[in-house]
Amino acid sequence: MQMAIVALVVGVAGAGAITLACHRYFFVIFTYPWLLPLSIYLVFFTRELGYNILGAMSIPYLSLLTFLCWKDYERRLNLIRADIRLREERNEIAANLRLVQQLKNQQDHDYYLTSQLIKPFAVNSAAPDSRLQIEFFTKQKKEFEFRNEKLAIGGDLSMAHNLNFPGRKMTIIVNADAMGKSIQGAGGCLVFGAVFRAIVDRVSPQEHCEPDEWLRQMVIELQKIFETFECSMLISAFFFLIDNATGEFYSISAEHPRAVIFRAGRASFLPMQHRLLKLGMPEFDAQFKINR
Q1: pLDDT band at 205 (very low <50, low <70, confident <90, very high)
Q2: Cα separation of 113 and 14, whole Å?
Q3: Residues 6+ apart with CB under 8 A from 230
Q4: Which of 138, 139, 173, 241 is buried most deeply by CB count within 10 Å?
């Protein structure tokens, strides 16, 4: 009988502690109604020492199982709460990622449209010449991908066009760098390219205009345009006007990195006696000299 009681107390109570921890009070409701009266009977209503010890030991055993059951319930509850929070955080992260991706797609679309507007200006439209070879290399800071096409956008712009002066065939080469990166710099390039192209298209009717004076007027006109931005958009540029037949050239630098000449196996900076501030600066000297 003692062995049966021990098996009943230990086995049933222990199994109940494991299986009934899904709620805080399930184990108490299941175990206490029959185990507590049994323990009281063994302690107070039997005269055998073994029964008394068994009844007395069931009390701490029952208390320990109750404590472990509650702790296990709290552990399971915390795991469920953590899982719920994790799912909510994952859903929130996924929603934020979708929003970021949507904003990025919109931004890339704006970048794409701006790059398409600049593309007609950033060209080498000079006709092929046996004595003059022109090559461009432009690497913008902002690179992006849109519709499986890798593109770039920024403030760097290079252009080349043929000009016909009286009795002289010349080529204008420009390298410009607008203030700001990505979309801001691209906006400056768009304005610069549009104004420059409009000026170049007007050179043919000016039959009696000297090349150096034409170059001066072009820089002045660009300066007037960028002055309207009130220093919110500045642009550095290097203008290079060369005679295709003789190699004589006129140049002016508007606070741009110095040009390099490679001659007789040696590279050196092109001498620049006269330099301007960036286009758009209010301290502009309209009487500047052209390097020849």
Answers
A1: very low
A2: 72
A3: none
A4: 241
